[in-house]
Amino acid sequence: MKTCLVVDDSSIVRKVARRIVEALGFQVIEAEDGVEALVHCKKAMPEAILLDWNMPVMDGFQFLGTLRRMPGGEEPMVVFCTTETGIDHITRAMGGGANEYIMKPFDKDIVMAKFQEVGLIALGEETAA
């Protein structure tokens, strides 16, 4: 089973994301900031990372840069999931190594479409709701 690391300082957002991503057939690991997320990645690199931008301790952009420099850190598909909607943020995220970008609030259809776009799930693939 593929693993998705959900990184967000909001426990509510993590809970909603967990339900969506598990319904898409992923095992979910949660982290509330970039430092905690890096600890998980050092233990076992996930296939997917759903990543918030604004977090305490280490924000999503700092995490992304550190991840991409780690051994195996180029492999996870990273989807930013944030309230930062400015084109400058999107450009910076994509230039920094993100594979896709989702605006909050999000729902299952949006996450599924982005996971399909980056090849994490096959087109039309969907498990239990």
SSE pattern, N- to C-terminal: EHEHEHEHEH
- Summing up helix and strand content along with how strands pair, one would put the structural category as alpha/beta
CATH class: Alpha Beta
CATH architecture title: 3-Layer(aba) Sandwich
Molecular shape: globular
Largest sheet: 5 strands, parallel
- What is the multimeric organization of the chains shown? single chain
Strand content: 15-25%
Number of helices: 5
Main β-sheet, spatial strand arrangement: 2-1-3-4-5
Mean pLDDT: 92
Work out the radius of gyration.
13 Å
Summed up, the domain count is 1
Number of strands: 5
Which fold does the CATH topology refer to? Rossmann fold
Pfam families: Response_reg
GO biological process, one term: phosphorelay signal transduction system
Keywords: Phosphoprotein
InterPro entries: CheY-like_superfamily (IPR011006), Sig_transdc_resp-reg_receiver (IPR001789), ST_Response_Regulator (IPR052048)
Q: How would you characterize this protein structure?
A:
By secondary structure, the chain is α/β, with parallel strands linked by helices. The protein has one domain (3-116): Response regulator (Rossmann fold, 3-Layer(aba) Sandwich), CATH 3.40.50. Helices cover 40% and strands 19% of the residues. The protein has five helices and five strands, in the order E-H-E-H-E-H-E-H-E-H. It has helices at residues 11-23, 34-43, 60-69, 87-95, 108-117; strands spanning 3-7, 27-31, 48-51, 77-82, 100-103. It has a five-stranded parallel beta sheet with strand order 2-1-3-4-5, sandwiched between helices. Helix 2 packs parallel to helix 3 (60-69). The protein is globular and about 35 Å long. This is Chemotaxis protein CheY. InterPro entries: CheY-like_superfamily, Sig_transdc_resp-reg_receiver, ST_Response_Regulator. One of its GO terms (biological process) is phosphorelay signal transduction system. Residues 3-119 form the Response regulatory domain. Keywords: Phosphoprotein.
